[in-house]
Amino acid sequence: MAKTKPMRGRKQSRRGPAARLLPRRALRVPRSGLHEQAATKLRELIVRGDLLPGEPLLEIGMSEALGISRTPLREALKQLATEGLVELRLNRSAVVAPLRREELTELFEAVGGIERCAAELAAIRMTSQDVARLEALQRRIEWHHGRGELRDYFEVNQQIHGAIVGFAQNAVLKAAHEALLPRVERARLFALSARGRWNESVNEHRQILIALEAGDGARAGQLLGRHVRRTGEIVADTLTNGKAAS
Question: Contact 88/81 with Cβ under 8 angstroms?
Fold first, then answer.
């Protein structure tokens, strides 16, 4: 009796269903590239005011300055546009996003709420090491304030705000805060440059620290929320008086 040969079915793919349905190029995991480095540098320049609100970001000049081609530069600008720091314009150069009074009012309302909640939680969740860190940061901002070192003060000021949010031990609050941080940082530096605000800020930070040390969440939250809103008011008033580029 003749043996029947087993039917040969289609060769089973070892690549998996996704690999069979998608081209190989679509499955490649993107690596950290030039556009992320460019975005980091441009973000720093915008936040620190080296690139002014409304300033055109000419592709040729920017790509030469950063030492990259125009393709990663465009990707970097798209990323910064999602963060609210850059505005893309059809058939025209991108520009640094202007500081607009209405948007900043809403921004500081949101950030004030986030940081107020964070301070309330941090006051009851902070460790002694956390308190010691805030005390050290407070000494540093007072040192820089006494020496008139605004940029150094600003850097430490941002560390204090970030630390308080971190000490709240709430991942959702932290993520929401980080999403708004680049726009907030730029406006905070602008506010600190206003006459009289720098002195106010130092004193307000000292009172916030005292409340946190005492474990008084309600007062710490109230003070920090008011501190953030006051910064927003300073920026809004300055814009109203026509003292900012737009």
Answer: yes
Say how many domains are in the chain: 2
18: pLDDT strictly greater than 80? no
Q: Give the predicted TM-score (pTM) of the model.
A: 0.75
Decide if 232 contacts 188 (C-beta within 8 A). Answer: no
pLDDT of 23 > 70? The answer is: no
3-state SS track over the chain: CCCCCCCCCCCCCCCHHHHHHCCHHHHCCCCCCHHHHHHHHHHHHHHCCCCCCCCEECHHHHHHHHCCCHHHHHHHHHHHHHCCCEEEECCEEEEECCCCHHHHHHHHHHHHHHHHHHHHHHHHHCCHHHHHHHHHHHHHHHHHHHCCCHHHHHHHHHHHHHHHHHHCCCHHHHHHHHHHHHHHHHHHHHHHCCCCHHHHHHHHHHHHHHHHHCCCHHHHHHHHHHHHHHHHHHHHHHHHCCCCCC
Question: Is 165 part of a structural domain of the chain?
Answer: yes
Residue 82: phi, psi to the nearest 5?
-65, -20
Do 219 and 160 have their domain in common?
yes
Q: Of the ranges 20-24, 59-63, 210-214, 240-244, which is most confident?
A: 210-214
Residue 54, domain extent: 33-96
Greatest mean pLDDT range, 9-23, 48-62, 171-185, 209-223: 209-223
